[in-house]
Amino acid sequence: MTTTTPTADAAMTDIEQALTRLIRRGNQPRVHERLAARAGVSLDRAAYAALSRVHEAGPLRLSELATRMGVDVSTASRQLQQLERSGLVARVGDPADRRASLLELSAEGRRVLARMRQARHAGLAQVLAGWSARDRRRLATALTRLVDDLERVTGVRA
């Protein structure tokens, strides 16, 4: 049995509460709306998530997109239809299976995603403007380690 000290328990509580606040803030629709406005694009949170996943893993099949997003295929299909109508994602033939199609970003999809990422980067730079380069590097290292360990322990890649 592992025992923890009161200090370790307090640290775990602080970490859990800070992560909860961070996730809650990131999931607020108005946060995404402001980001999209800053980027000069019209893209809802679900569409942004799908677009990001296609960029990260594409070209990929719809079933793989659904798995990566943690939703069922019908939900991913509805989101994909919106992205296709907007000209942000295109279907291309799967060279391994002529009956199947793969999803990939269009040139417009790459442009919209780049604008969103630029806006996110600018916002984060504003938040961290008072931090030293050393503190920013420490945060980057700790967050990367946390995400890597979460993926390893849970077996789920975000």
What this model shows, in words?
Helices cover 69% and strands 9% of the residues. With 158 residues, it is mainly α. A two-stranded antiparallel ribbon has the order 1-2. A hairpin with a 2-residue loop joins strand 1 (89-94) and strand 2 (97-105). Helix 4 crosses helix 5 (73-85). It is globular. The protein starts with 5 loop residues before the first helix and ends with a helix. 16% of the residues are buried. The mean pLDDT is 90.
Would you kindly provide a brief summary of this structure?
The protein has 158 residues and is mostly helical.
Overview features:
single chain, about 160 residues, mainly alpha, 7 helices, about 70% helix, about 10% strand
Please summarize the sheet with the most strands.
Answer: 2 strands, antiparallel
H/I helix tally: 7
By secondary-structure content and strand pairing, the structural class works out as mainly alpha
Give the end-to-end Cα distance, rounded to a whole number of Å: 31 Å
